[in-house]
Each structure stands twice: as structure tokens, then as C-alpha cells.
Amino acid sequence: MTPQRKDAARNWDRILTVARELVDEGTPLQLNDVARRAGLGVGTVYRHFPTTEALLETVATPCLEAIADHGRKALEDDDPWHAFSDYLKRLVEAQVSDPALAKVAATAADTLPRTTELKQQIIAIGTELLTRARAAGAVREDLADGDLVPLMCGVAYATYVHSDGPADRLPTARRYLDTLLRGLSA
Amino acid sequence: MTPQRKDAARNWDRILTVARELVDEGTPLQLNDVARRAGLGVGTVYRHFPTTEALLETVATPCLEAIADHGRKALEDDDPWHAFSDYLKRLVEAQVSDPALAKVAATAADTLPRTTELKQQIIAIGTELLTRARAAGAVREDLADGDLVPLMCGVAYATYVHSDGPADRLPTARRYLDTLLRGLSA
DNA sequence: CGATGAAACGGATAGCTCATCCGCATGTGT
DNA sequence: ACACATGCGGATGAGCTATCCGTTTCATCG
Hints:
By secondary structure, the first copy, chain A, is an all-alpha fold. Chain A contains 9 helices and no strands.
């Protein structure tokens, strides 16, 4: 993934660093803007990342991997409800603390080629945890597999609409998720 | 609100008609686009509606009024929980069937001067219904007044993320709201 | 170590959308 | 019918996206 040549690798890193900064400060990603801030030509940025989405994906990848790792651990939890709810909590917290993740989560898979596989792993883990929780009678029957992602995005979105700034997001998100989970439990 | 002069009033109507069509077919509003479709100069459109938001507001106004009317009736309902949940149902259904409404709902009041008052009426009614339901012990204590709008937007957003097209939105939205209401009830 | 080809760089620039401005046309009141 | 006010239209500039190609840098091999 990272380029072979030394200069290319250096620029790749610079671009990602700048992009991460922009995402964190809430600025919408603009490739020309990234180029200027990184002290590079636009051409360079566009060669590495043909679209804003491509850059966004790459920025979000480490977080996605962390979530997948966390999920694999959750699969070893004996308490199905705890494993399920804890995983959802992780998903929501990640989304509200990282705008890049929120965008990737809400975007259809086909426009995000690079992270599709990771995203599907994360969804598959969620589905598995849901299936177990359902089998244990802990979750309402009418919650379908395909509802998981939308509901997580919904909680994250509600948090964004509510909050004035990044500061009070986490507690709000937790409160909203708690409410949702209460509604989901059997 | 509508201009006095005959030609101006006619153009105003044309613009609103076209805008309503565009919103309904899911196309994002672009003022130049509206002008072209309405057979008018861009200047005309920009004079009536300086920004996309202003046009969006005006497009959404009738729906907002309908909601406020519905709300005033809900205030006469004797069952606090029924009045409250029914009102929320109305809010969510309106949002998922009208993208204009969803945008207006999720936008901060200060960028939408024209509909601010209407929006606040709608929120005030919701708050009143919530207060009554809370007083009757039907709603969880930790649901704050300011949570109402974000949660409604969240449900609408989740519905958008879930659905493939406008067709299956309503049932999905109802299902999600049911789940949320279950979590909100004491 | 110097030459050579491949790969990457940079930024000029074309294409596009947004929004303004002002000369011209149209409607309204006398 | 006239004059003034009001509204109309679209040319136009500002800002952003994305491409293309001449120049530069890197890695490899004799």
C-alpha cells in the first residue's frame, strides 16, 4: 500500500498526517488544501489519492482495524448480551470521536474499495454477536442484521445534531446508545 | 412573503414548484439548476432566495405548519404517553418522506431565519408533551428536553442509511422509532 | 561511480458551480 | 400615455476540482 520509493513514501506520510489533522479539526477534506498544507503539488496528492474518499478511507483504516481487533476479542466473551452491547458501544464511541469514521460508515461500500473488506469484517462480527444475543433471548426478535449499521450511524448522527462541540459528544453518545439498547433488549 | 407584483409572484411560484419537484426526486437543490428548469434567469432565483437554505426553508414551510397543527391537537389528548409517542411518530414520518424537512430539522436555527419561529413552536409542543409524559411517570427521567430533536434526526438518518430507496422508508422508520420509544418509556 | 530508464513531482490550466452586478424590460400608479 | 419603481436576465468573476505533461528525483546496473 505505501509506495516503495523513498520520496513517495515520505510524501504519502505527509499527506496522511495533514489529512488526519484536518479531519480532527473538523475541516472538510479538500485535496488541493491538503497539498498546500503539506507543501506538495496537487498532482502528487491526486496521484496517491484520486478522490477525497480514497484519502478518507486511508485515514480511517487504523481505527477500523482497531475496531475489528476489539470485535475479535468480544467474540470470546461468554455473556452474549454484554459482548453485543459492549461492541456497539465501541462502534458508537469511535464514530463520534472520529468524523472520518462516521463518513466511511455511512457511505455505501462500492465507493470505498480499499476499506470494504475491513468494513465487512466489522459488520460480520456485529452480526455474529447479534445472532448469539438473539439466540440467548437477550435481544428483540425484530432486530434484523441489516439494522446494525444504520442504527449506529443514527446514534452518531443524533449526537452530532445535539452537541455544540467535540467536547460533550462522548457522554451524549453513551446516553443515546443506552436508551437504544434498552429498546433493543428483550 | 409572496411578492406583490404579478410577474414576481408568478416566478416565485414557478421556483417553488420546481424546487419541490427537485427535493421530491432527491436531487440536491442548486439555485442555477432551479433557474434553468424554471426557465428563469439565475438572478431572479437569487433575488427571491439568496441561498439554497432560504429556498429549502420556504419549500418546507407547509409541512412544518402541518406538523405544528397536528401538535396543537396532540396537546388536547388525555393520555400523555400516547400524545407524546404519536407526535414523535408524526415528526419522524414527516422527516423520512420529505428530505427538505430533514435538512431543516438538522440545521441550526440561526441559519434559517424564516422558519425559526415555526421550528420553535414545534419544539415547544414536543417539550410540553414530554414534560407531561414525564410528570405522568411514563418516560425515563434522564431524557432531557434538548434530546428530542437530535433523536428524531437520528431515527430519520438511520432510516436513510438503511433504505435503498424512498419506498421502504416508512416501515423502517416506524420500526426504529418503536425501538427508541421502548427505550424511552419508564 | 556515472549513466539510464522508470517513477514521482509540480503547477499551469481547463472545466465546473456559485453568486453578484448592472443595463434592460416590465409592471403599476398618476 | 408617461414616469418611476421594481423585477428580470445572463455575462461574468471568484473559487474549487481534477488532469496533463514537461521537469526532476530516485534506484539500478554496467
